[in-house]
Amino acid sequence: MRKLMLAVGGSLILVAPMSQADVVGLGASVSYWDSDLSGKAATNNDVVDVENDLNLDNDTNANASLYVEHPVPVLPNVRLNYTLVQQSGQGELGADFGDITTVGTGVNVRSELDLEQVDFTFYYEVLDNWVNLDLGVTARDLNGELLIQEQGGANRVNRTEVDAVIPMGYLAARFDLPLTGLSVGAEGNLISYDGDSLHDFNAFGQFEIALVQLRAGYRQMSIDYEDGDDRLDVEIGGPFVSAGVTF
Questions:
Q1: Does domain 31-246 have CATH number 2.20.28?
Q2: Which of 119, 53, 114 is nearest to 236 (CA)?
Q3: If you ran DSSP here, which 8-state letter would residue 11 be given?
Q4: How far apart (Å, rounded) are the C-alpha atoms in residues 224 and 235?
Q5: Do 50 and 38 meet the contact criterion of CB atoms below 8 Å apart?
Q6: Closest CA to 165 of 116, 201, 124, 200
């Protein structure tokens, strides 16, 4: 079931003067994110701790982005970002969860968590000099599934799923250190509405030489989202490194 949250804070009204690029600019990057997971998942009134009960460990992280900037007034610049987090583990349920019943004793389970999101961000350059500031909105296509499978016995399976297209506010700031190729910055997406909330922030240091752009920093993503009877309330955070090219 897709649930569209239709609130974006008034701070995202882009009334400041916009700075347009002088020429068309392109950029792309890939990154490695060494993330840890914590939080809970729920189906109906059953709750499981994804870290302590399921022992989920980081297996796969895929992150890539692409952006296009242009000199056309009024029209926003566009950024596309893809994130995939896959974790698996073996743990023990101490209480019933969905179709898996414990009958007063613990049940050994194997679990897999897949979180996939595609961000389409439309933004304007408010400042474009040694201080860079972008403001915009992001449409995030979020798909998440937690599969818990009983080991032995009836071999029962339970799935907790969220599937939504969510509008979020977007903000990015970068401060260039003159004549060094070095800069520091931060960027993020955020929304909170009717008990659901999502945020995705990162802070970084960057070194740029010729067309190559290298970054290192810390990223934290929080998802507290309900879709029907299913709910994910998890945090994913850790350091990242990325390499990209700009034209």
A1: no
A2: 114
A3: G
A4: 9
A5: yes
A6: 116
pLDDT digits (tens, 9 = 90+) for 48-85: 999 999 998 767 788 999 999 988 888 999 999 999 99
Could you please report the per-residue DSSP string of 87-108?
A: EEEEEEESS-BTTB--TTS-EE
Nearest to 83 by CA among 29, 128, 133: 29
Structure tokens at 208: 């740029």
Q: Are strands 230-246 and 36-43 parallel, antiparallel or unpaired?
A: antiparallel
Please report, for the chain, the start and end positions of each structural domain, with discontinuous segments joined by +.
31-246
Reference 227, options 116, 158, 143, 104; nearest CA is: 143
For 176-186, how does the pLDDT look when each residue is reduced to its tens digit (9 = 90+)? Answer: 998 899 999 99
Task: Please tell me the distance from the alpha carbon of residue 17 to that of residue 123, in angstroms, as a whole number.
Answer: 13
pLDDT tops 60 at residue 21:
no
Q: Which two tokens stand for residue 219?
A: 């990223």
The angle formed by the CA atoms of residues 151, 154 and 157, to the nearest 5 degrees, is: 65
pTM above 0.85, yes or no: yes
**pLDDT value at 4 more than 70:** no
